[in-house]
Amino acid sequence: MTVVGYCRISRDEDKENYSSIEEQKRIIKEYANTRNWIIEDKDFYIDDNVSGYTLNRPEFSKMMEKVRGGRVDVVIAKDLSRIGRNNGLVLVLIDEFKNMQKNLILVSEMCGSYDVLNDRDDTIGITTWFNERYVKDCSRKTRDHMYSKQKSGRLIMGNYYGYEKVFQDKVPMLYVIEVLRPVIELIFKLYVEEGYGFQKISEILNTKYNYPTPSEYYRMKHLERGRMYKHKVQEYWTKDMVSNILKNEVYTGTLITHKKRTVNIRGKSVKVPKEEHFIFENHHEPIISKEMFKLAQEIRNKKYKQNTSGANKKRDYYFSGMCQCVDCGSGMSGVTIKRKVREKGYDCSRYRQYSTKACHCHEIKEKDILIHLREFLKLTKQEYLEEIKAIKIEIKKENKSKEKFNLQNKLNILNEEYKMIVRQKIKELAAASNKLQKEIIENTYKELEKEKRQSICYVQMAIEANEKKGLEEDIMKFKTAIEYFDEIINSEKPNRMMLERVIDKICIYKDKTIRFELKPNISKILTKFVEDV
Predict the structure, then answer these.
(1) Helix (H) or strand (E) holding 63
(2) Rounded to whole angstroms, how far apart are CA atoms 353 and 329?
(3) What total of structural domains would you count in the chain?
(4) Within this chain, do residues 66 and 91 fall inside the same structural domain, yes or no?
(5) In whole angstroms, what is the distance from residue 432 CA to residue 442 CA?
(6) DSSP 335-404
(7) Residue 523 and residue 494 share a domain
(8) Statement to judge: residues 454 and 511 lie in one domain
(9) Cβ count within 10 A of residue 430
(10) Structural domain containing residue 228
(11) Which of 33, 149, 182, 372 has the greatest CB tally within 10 Å of its CB?
(12) Quick one: which of 175, 184, 97, 85 has its CA closest to 129?
C-alpha cells in the first residue's frame, strides 16, 4: 500500500493560524506512525504559497494523477483546509475518493481525525463551507486593508519610471531618480513644445538618445541587487511607453490611488470611476510642472476629438492580420497614409514601433492590395478553373469545437458540484436532532446553492450562444472556392469572412512587391503568383 502526505500554505492567510510546512509534515508523520505506515520526505507533495481556492495546483495535480492511476492508495493531510477552500470542489473530490476506494485522511479534522472511507461525514459540508467562508473573509480583509492604505495615500504599487520607492520609518516614499529625470522632461518637451506625436517621440528616443526603457532599467536594478528580473524586457521605446508617461499625474508630484479594485477571490481588476479616486497633491517631488502636464492633456484631448490618431473612430482594414513584412517577418499594421488624400494602408509594425533600427518604411495602400488581389484571383481562376470548382471549403471548427467542449465540461463539473451540495445538505438534515440545527443547516446551504445555480445559468447561456453562432456558420460551409473567388473579384468591398476562406498570407516586400499565398488546401494544386505595385 502506497501512502503519501500533502501540505499546503498560502502567504495571504493569517500567519498566526496556519501551520508551517514542517509542522504539517511532523503532524502527518506522527499520525502515520500510529498506523505503522512510513512516510519519507520524498513521499510528500507540497504546494508552498498557493491558494486553496482552486484545486489546480502543481503538486496537488501530480498527486491526484497518481491517485487516479492507482499508484497512491492513501493521502494524509493536516486538515480539510489544506486540501482546499472551495466548498463545491472539495465535496466532489471527497466523493471521487470514495468512488475510487482510495482513502483521504485528515489528521486534525472534526474534533479528531477524519477518514473518508471509514468515518461518517454528516457535518463535512458545514466544514467545507466554513473553510470557503474563511478564504473569502481573508480576501475581504485584504481588500479593506488595501483600501485603507489607498485612502491614506500610502504607496502600494510597484514602480513608477523616474522614481525610486524608499522606506522611511516603514512608510514608502517616492524620490526622483536623477539620471532618469532628463528623459521624462524630454518626452513632455517634445510633445508639448515641439509638437511631436507618440510614435515620433519613441523614434527620437531610439535613434538619438541612449536612455533605458522602463523594463531595461528595472532589470538593471534587479541585477545590481542580485535578483532575477522575471518580466519581459523591451529594448526599444514604443509609443505606448511614451503615452503612459504623458498621461501619468505622478510626474507632477500628485499621487492618485484607488484606480482599480478586485471584485472577488482571484478575480480580475476592474476600473474605478474617477470620482471615487483618492488624490494627494504635493505628495512627492515633481519632475514636470502642473502647467506642462495640463497642456499635454489638452493636446491629447484635442487630437482625440480631431481623430488624428484614429482614436475616436476605429478603422476597418480588410487585410488586418494577413499582411506580413518579408524583410523582418513581423506583421503589417493598418495605418492612415497621409498624401493629398488620407487613405487606409499598411506598414511594417516593427518599423512603426522602432524606426529604422528594426526595419524600413514600406507603406502600401489598401486599395492597391485589393486591385492586385482581384487580378491575382482572375488569373488563377482562368488557369485552374476546373480544379478550383472542385475545392470544397468548409469552415474550420476546431476552435469552436474546443470552446464548446470546454463550456460543456465546465457545466458538467458545476452540475456535479451542485448535486454534491444538495446530497450533503440532505444527509446533514437527516442527521440533525432538532429544529434549530436544521435551520442552521438550511441557511448555511442556501447561499451555496444560489451561487452554484447562478454559475450553471451563466454557462448554459454561453453554450446556447456558442451553438447559435455555430448554426450561422454551418450555412456557409458548402461553398466552393470558385464562389469565394467570384465574390471577392466582383464585390466593391470584400467581406472579411470571404477573404479568410481563401487567403492565408499577403507578403509585402521592401520594394512593395506583393505575393499572395492561398489557404493550404487550395495551394496544394495551385501555384503562387507575384504582382508588382
Answers:
(1) helix 58-68
(2) 14
(3) 4
(4) yes
(5) 11
(6) EEEESSSEEEEEEEHHHHHHGGGT-----EEHHHHHHHHHHHHHHHHHHSHHHHHH-B-----HHHHHHH
(7) yes
(8) no
(9) 9
(10) 152-306
(11) 372
(12) 85
Q: Mark whether 389 and 511 lie in a shared domain.
A: yes
Q: How far apart are CA 425 and CA 446, in angstroms?
A: 10
From 77, 112, 139, the end of a domain falls on 139
Record the cell numbers describing residue 20, joined without a space. Answer: 508551517
Q: Is residue 181 part of a domain?
A: yes
The alpha-carbon radius of gyration of the chain (Å, integer) is 31
Given a contact cutoff of 8 angstroms between Cβ atoms, the answer to whether 437 and 123 are in contact is: no
Query: 203 is written with which cell numbers?
Result: 523614434
Q: Tell me whether strands 103-109 and 74-77 are parallel, antiparallel or unpaired.
A: parallel
pLDDT per residue as tens, the chain (533 positions): 899 999 988 765 444 444 578 888 888 998 899 889 989 989 999 988 887 667 888 899 999 999 999 999 999 998 888 887 776 677 778 888 888 999 988 887 655 577 877 765 554 544 444 444 444 455 455 454 445 554 554 555 567 898 888 776 666 778 888 889 999 999 998 888 777 889 889 999 998 888 899 988 888 887 877 777 777 888 899 999 999 999 988 899 888 775 665 554 444 566 767 666 677 787 888 999 888 898 888 888 877 655 444 443 445 678 877 899 998 888 888 888 877 788 889 988 888 888 888 888 888 999 999 999 999 888 888 877 777 666 665 544 444 566 677 778 778 878 887 887 788 778 778 877 777 777 777 777 777 777 778 778 878 877 877 676 665 555 444 466 677 788 888 888 777 667 877 888 899 998 889 999 887 666 554 544 444 44
Grid cell 445538505 in the structure block, residue:
425
Contact 73, 37 (CB under 8 A): no
Instruction: Retrieve residue 269's grid coordinates.
Output: 481588476
**pTM given for the model:** 0.41
Per the CB < 8 A criterion, the answer to whether 335 and 363 are in contact is yes
The DSSP secondary-structure symbol of 236 reads: S
Distance between CA 240 and CA 159 in Å, rounded? 17
Looking at 80, 110, 139, which one is the last position of a domain? 139
Using CA atoms, how far residue 327 sits from 2, 23, 295, 346, in Å, is: 59, 60, 40, 15
Q: Are residues 96 and 40 in the same domain?
A: yes
Minimal CA–CA distance to 408: which of 459, 481, 343? 459
Beta-ladder partners of 44: 5
